[in-house]
Design brief:
Layout: H1 7-39, H2 43-55, H3 57-68, H4 72-96, H5 102-105, H6 109-129, H7 141-162, H8 184-187, H9 191-223, H10 227-239, H11 241-252, H12 256-270, H13 272-280, H14 286-289, H15 292-314, H16 325-344
Length: 345
Amino acid sequence: MWGDLSTTVLIVAFLAAGGVIFFSGLRMAGLADKIADRTGLGEAIIGAVLLGAATSLSGIIVSVTAALDGRASLAFANSVGGIAAQTVFLAVADMFYRKVNLEHAAADLGNVFQGIVLMVLLTLPFVALTTPEYTIWAVHPVSFAIPLVYAAGLVAGRRVHEAPMWTPVETNATKTDQPEEEDAESKAESTLRLFLTFGLLMLLMGVAGYVIAKTASELADRVQISDTLVGALGTAYVTSMPELVTTVAAVRKGALQLAVGGIIGGNTFDTLFLTASDVAYRDGSLYHAVGDQDYFWIVSALLMTGLLIGGLILRQRQGPGRIGTESLLLLLIYAGAVALQVVVG
């Protein structure tokens, strides 16, 4: 079916699916903030779990579809390339928060902890790479470990939220997570309706993700560029647009913990793409089927995540109108990674 379409139609379909993801993500930020207030779970938890998972749905559809088609590099690079892209979105969001450095104002121990969990998850593919290519039902054991570590991180993260053993020092620039007073129109909208609307947007993003996977694969074949380049800089970027939209929207409305938690939580959830892709990839271990260029994006994501956590702990206080040093470094590292990938790929 997709091979019968013209290149112009494929490009239009790719862009249209990206538009669906963009506008769905824009609506999700407001819904997630309301759900965080209604449920009392807090912006960091809702951002990490609900918003992070929802905005990642289109990406996981892309990776699984690519893996089913036997395109290991596209599936792998879409996952880890998206993590790097989404991390740099916090640097972009920092530009929209003009009062003080975003990482200073959004002090939250839950986000720091989830960032550490993310770094642990990102090391697991290297465990697979440096061990024998052993599989169970064509699935590497590391793929079973990833969701277990993810789940354990969520449970521990909830404990950190409810009974923190460390707390950030509050300054006059710290923006705490306080439920906002809803207007009469918002109060009239039931919590059930909020969840149903959120679910419908997730469904739309899932369909859009499938279209992106199919059109991107076909376009890659026609213009003869590597699946790694398409995955890391094409599908990963388009499917990550909800994170950019929701992060900037959350920052502009003052939901800073939701913004940071949505990025870190989305990145943590994105590691599950690897498990899903390895299960869908029927030719053996996904981790041994990809190359150095694919693992390069894990290295980039690890480096960027480490800098982000450092920024959340250091809490640099830049003056109004200036972004933090870690945000500048994130932008430079990502730009360098993209330039190197384009040259190599």
